[in-house]
Amino acid sequence: MELKEKLLSSFMAFEEQVDVHSELHDVRTEAIKNFENKGFPTKKEESWKYTSLNAILKNDFTVFPKNENSIEFRDVKKYFIHEIDTYKVVFIDGVFSSHLSSTTHEGVDICLMSSALHKPKYKMVIDNYFNKIASKDESLTSLNTAFANEGAYINIPKSKVVRKPIEIMYFSTGSEAALLVQPRNLIVVGENSHVQIIERHQSLNENPVLTNSVTEIFAQKRAIVDYYKIQNDNLAANLIDNTYVSQKQESHVSVQTFSFGGNLTRNNLNFYHFGERLTSTLNGITIIGEKQHVDHYTLVHHAAPNCESFQDYKGIFSDSSVGVFNGKVYVEKEAQKTNAFQKSNNILLGDKSTINAKPQLEIFADDVKCSHGCTVGQLDETAMFYMQQRGIPKKEAKALLMYAFSNAVIENIKIPELKQRITKIIADKLGVKIGFDL
Prior knowledge:
This protein has about 450 residues and is an alpha/beta fold. The chain has helices spanning about 5-15, 20-40, 55, 75, 115-120, 125-130, 140-145, 380-390, 395-410, 415-430; strands at about 85-90, 95, 110, 150-155, 165-170, 180, 185-190, 195-205, 210-220, 225-230, 235-245, 250-260, 265-275, 280-290, 295-300, 310-315, 320-330, 340-350, 355-365, 370-375.
């Protein structure tokens, strides 16, 4: 049975397992109908022109894990930012792990999506925010909505500064021959509040995993949200990440994506502006090799005046790896005084590595400052020669140049321990030891 048919046949059984009120039933039913009509995206769609799911969908994925699995903290400690104290929301094969998690309801809600969907005390927030900014037309988002049940639920009330970062962790144990998981995260940050969030998906086995994740982020007036996505998985892991961000006036939201591993990674990042004088920041570093594939698709929709958006994506591609950057900035007529900046810089280290870049601007306002750019090249041979002449071995010189190339994004990381962790991962990917602390 093809995966699409398996999912459609599993939908009714899934709805019988979860206790949902009528509004959610209608939302799920509409979503599964949309997925049935559209199916999985193909390269015939412009936004998926350079990314094919055909090889992945041939796996016989288990939709619901048959067994509950547990893992010990010592076995996965290295994947956490364990140098500091954090709130933790941890899932194993899509199931919440209480003994690895550290949640709270003291002044803020950092807990489970399943609790929020099913308990009356969260109903007002769910009614106001769940599935309100996520696309109703994107088929994989619709698929996630139809099966949405588990994930992280974060609600930060007005004028709260969350005292420590939040880690959202998804582990796959490989207990199934092939597993499909569909986490759903809802994050609401109230007026004048501030939160830092780190998200990671990690496979602990070589069995194929397909993660179809959706995250909705709502930043109210003057809220500050720093969101970090760490993607450094093994070659059997496939991640499709749909993140939707709604911003009100004077809010600041940054999403920084670090893509270092996995078989296929697709990051769909959509920002929508609903107020003036707000700032959106989208940064990314991609360092991949072998036959890995990373596709960044971004949209910043400027719908109000006096707003800013900044996109800076760096890519280093070796062997037969493939990178994609498809970024769009859309400026409506009302969005005067917009300042939008978009840049994609890429280095190809191998003759067979590929980057497909398509920066786009659609501007309907006349008083704006918008720019976009894309570069594709190799390392500067003159700089390499200069460094070698001063006694730096070729391998280290090459790594230092690549590190300097990506450093502009690293400098934007606001959690020192995470900054050190990312620096170490980059050094490992480049095959050198960085002889200085940051």
